[in-house]
Amino acid sequence: MTTTSQPVTMDKLLSLAKRRGFLFQSSEIYGGLNATWDYGPLGAQLKRNVKDAWWRSILQHRDDVVPFDAAILMHPATWEASGHLGSFTDPLVECRSCHQRFRADHIDSNNCPNCQGELTAPRQFNLMFKTFMGAVEDTASEIYLRPETAQGIYVNFKNVLDTSRRKLPFGIAQVGKAFRNEITPGNSTFRTREFEIMELEFFVKPGDDDDWLQYWTEQRMDWFVSLGVDRANLRLRKHESDELAHYAKEVYDIEYRFPWGWAELEGIANRTDYDLRQHADHSGQDLTYFDDQAQERYYPYVIEPSCGADRAALVFLIDAYQEEKIPPRKPGGKTETRSVLKLHRSLAPVTVAVLPLSRNERLVPTARRVHEILRQRFNTLFDDAQSIGRRYRRQDEIGTPFCVTVDFDTIDDEQVTLRERDTMSQLRIPVNRIVDAIEDKLRHGW
Length: 446
Ligand code: GAP
Prior knowledge:
Blueprint (H helix, E strand, L loop, with lengths): L1 E2 L6 H11 L2 E3 L11 E3 L1 H20 L4 E3 L9 H6 L1 H4 L1 E6 L6 E3 L19 E4 L3 E3 L9 E3 L5 H5 L2 H8 L5 E10 L14 E11 L4 H18 L7 E5 L11 E9 L2 E12 L1 H10 L5 E3 L4 E3 L2 E8 H12 E6 L9 E6 L10 E5 L6 H13 L4 E3 L5 H11 L3 E5 L1 H6 L1 E6 L5 E5 L3 H11 L2
Helix pairs in contact: 2-9
The chain binds glycyl-adenosine-5'-phosphate.
């Protein structure tokens, strides 16, 4: 078996994503809404698995982080204090001929990339979506959709501190929707106007911040690798001083080698005490921390790993896609090509597919019984349509790590065939041991 070294193209990946039900253009029957995407049955499960994996590593496996879930709508004063009203902008230029708009820092030439027309001078465009709260549409009722979840954590810092009685260093984590009116969204779910973000605000003693930035940068890089992303496709890039966000002292991007080149996957920022100080100043509330060991009061610094769930799911899909040439089984036979998503087993939308060899009336009830046993423990799928070979290919293409096949021998010997996706090797296992066998393979590999 040989694996192609060709990197996957976005066309190929998006065709698979649509054909198999990972991703659909939003409102497709009305012609689609630009740069917004809906997750189909497999995509919804994949994204949930990505968020669960993040949650496990950031919260469940540690004892210094607590969960949070702030509302999307916040008091408008939040955005004044955080600096988003003034500084959350991108430089926008418009073509005087075709009126297409571009981010000035995303284009190379001084002319329109679309028609070569003359461009306007750049102006700062605020990325926050504005809407109205209540029945009156006036400036007093203007409100914003949050562009990050972090501010919900900062304005609740005191609430969490008082109720969870935490000592520094500790973190507050949340996953939720964010909205940005991007000038040039694109590359499917890489840059959209509505997305989900997984954010940790980790509060530390000033002076310890550089070490914690280093720590979280390494942790986050290792997380992607632990979930199967090839380390050669990841790199770290430190922000230059002229590209730092208005709140940041130092930022590292984890970049991924996308089909169109290296681009940001996740940012890890040292936000200093900027946000807590700003909210304290604007609200008049005391947001300091009392350090009872040092017997002093100060604003903690914040280290923030922040990752888009949609962007991470896209990376897991791209990195998992492979095409393999399978040599003919008999002399003179044809070489086959199989597309396979080598998704990490904890991310794959389906863990076990149950396949009766055929729709024979003696096989199907036995296969249903085996399915019933497996679905109590795993994400499963029952498929009895078409030939067994085609069904194996279908499961390979959606990344299912294990197939359990029920054949005529099963009826007599109560054993099923367990097939593994990557090696395509098979084992006979008694039905009463199949759950343990899969658990064991999930933990220790095939
Ligand atoms: N709270 C910090 C923050 O929001 P950011 O670098 O602007 O930092 C963090 O965003 C992450 O969110 C990015 O690394 C990316 O994974 C994701 N992200 C940002 N904008 C996005 C967009 N328009 N569409 C999809 N994901 C986006």
